[in-house]
Amino acid sequence: MNTEIKKLLASARKVARNTYSPYSKFPVGAALMTAGGKVFTGCNVENASYGLTLCAERVAVTSAVAAGYRKFKALAVVGGRRKAARPCGACLQVLSEFCGPDFPIYLAPLDKPSKVETVSLGALLPHVFRLTPES
Ligand code: THU
Q1: What is the pLDDT of residues 59-75, one digit of tens each?
Q2: Which of 13, 24, 31, 80 sits at a 20 to 30 Å CA gap from 117?
Q3: CA 45, CA 20: separation in Å to the nearest integer?
């Protein structure tokens, strides 16, 4: 794994400390790298009205888009204790708005930083929703 990805995972791990997850007690951190190498991070932000909870990945994507970035190179997600948490379907759909099926996602558990899993967006969400499906 190259240094850039190690740094991206470190950013995801660091932002997970800012998690607001008093209900699930399940911290998640995400770090999204733009095509130009800038990094946007996000953590999960829960709410007493549970359904309003924001996932770490969507916080990272929306921060990047709000700052004017729409082209991305990689995503790192840190969550889960012994096994890495996988991004939920809603976050994968949101990522698919901006990233193709080969987009790389690096996953690591909070307690085992060296246990990194690499997956593609297409592998996690092979049947993305499109307004105009290509047959
Ligand atoms: N969570 C994320 O931040 N990302 C995901 O992709 C899945 C779940 C958060 C939401 C909630 O705060 C906690 O994990 C437990 O579901």
Answers
A1: 999 999 999 999 999 99
A2: 24
A3: 5
